[in-house]
Design goal:
The complex is a heterodimer of chains A (234) and B (258).
Chain A: E1 18-22, E2 30-36, E3 39-50, E4 63-70, H1 85-98, E5 110-120, H2 125-139, E6 149-156, E7 159-161, H3 166-169, E8 175-183, E9 188-192, H4 200-230
Parallel strand pairs in A: 4-5
Antiparallel strand pairs in A: 1-2, 2-3, 3-5, 6-7, 6-8, 8-9
Chain B: H1 2-14, E1 30-34, E2 42-48, E3 51-62, E4 73-79, H2 95-110, E5 120-122, E6 126-138, H3 143-156, E7 162-163, E8 169-170, E9 186-193, E10 196-199, H4 203-208, E11 211-218, E12 221-227, H5 234-254
Parallel strand pairs in B: 4-6
Antiparallel strand pairs in B: 1-2, 2-3, 3-6, 5-6, 7-8, 9-10, 9-11, 11-12
Classes of the chains: A alpha+beta (234), B alpha+beta (258).
Amino acid sequence: MSYTKRVDGRAFDELRPMSVKVGVLENALGSCLFQMGKTKVLAGVYGPRQLYPRFLRNPEKGTVRCFYNMYSFSVSDRKRPGPGRREKELSEKIAQALEPAVMLEKFPDAVVDVFVEIIQADAGTRCASICAASTALADAGMPMKDIVSSVAMGKIGDKICADIDKYEEDYEGGATDIPIAFMPRTGEITLLQLDGEISPEDLKKAISVGREKVKEIYEKQKEALTAKYKGDKQ
Amino acid sequence: MKTNVKKQILELAQQGKRIDDRAFDEFRPVSIEYDISVNAEGSAMVSLGNTKVNAGVKMDVAEPYPDSPNKGNLMVGLELSPIAAPQFEPGPPSIDSIEISRVIDRGVREANAVNFEKLCIKEGELVWQVFIDEYAIDSDGNVLDAGAIAAIAALANTKLPKLDEENKVDYKEKNSKKLELRNVPLACTVVKIENFLLVDPNSKEEEVADSKLTITMSEHGIHGIQKGNGVLTEQEIAECITLAKKATDKLRKQLKLK
């Protein structure tokens, strides 16, 4: 089925309007409010701090934990509060997407906790979470090799699309979700999931479009961080 | 550390002052940002000083409770999310979070903040169910009072969703019918530190408090009381009520509800 035009009029490789703010919380060491279209995510970072229970500690390197929390009112049909199987899996995937960017050897035995709150959801929440979380980690002054930038790629009908929204995710003509995260400086991939049906060629195309598009997100993340430290009003 | 903070708070109190330059009967500055989440029927972020709470209202239809066949259902939950403070831990709701939720719930319910009878669709069979879900995102003490304001703000911001012919909720169709606020209950927490009574404690004051009392009031009177730790004399409770009345009356006038 041919998907000829995106519902919000975007080009197939065009991202939704983005807004990135850092230092939005008082208590968290680092924080970021990240908005991509109607998807709105708040991330807060605590640590490095002592990890309990003790047997989880790694004397070689630190640990990054993530807790993805979807607000009950972030979606049309109220989501029951508390983490279900989906939230637990996403928390784990987000932590794994962030870990390669953090210099874990700098804080053996300790843990860095990243809390992600989904305030408003219009698809792509795990990607927005990764963007918010990695920016919050940088805001916290964590030693890092790079910021992680992530985009929800998809094959909607017969088209490879960047930053798919809820309408596209539910597209009747077939939708394949491909959330991807990169460390843009090296181009290394830290998250890749796929759900749907796609040819190897199309997947390669989706990844290469994703690699280009995250550069735009990366610039916004860096802008927000430099703006804070230059003392600009955000 | 704790004793130093207490000493400082007490020295200032003897001069009629507080560590954040407030009067004893004064709430910290309140600000409200509405429509923080479009999929909610109503939503708001409330700041009470540096304490911040996100609140949202979701509405659905359900069977009424047997003891209130002609009234809508209400459920309030507030999570002390670990993003809000280093001492808040992930996991199932803590006892503090359950207590805060229940005190806010009773305030909204007992003060008839909304007309629950108007939320009846078919007596004994179908009523509106109002979920107020709240999440602390930054805690500098007294999340309860901030949560009570946020609950009212989110309710004031609520538009009823549409019902289709089969009495199913259609969330895609936005209705312009607002949920009408009838009454504005506000919670006021007073702490006692030695012989001083302070309204709306910040985290430092909360930590060294000897006792605590929360009073929920509307223009019609007192709707709920919750004593925390410690002891209070009858005289002190009367003083707390006087302080709470003055503080909530002033705050109610300042609030910009929409």
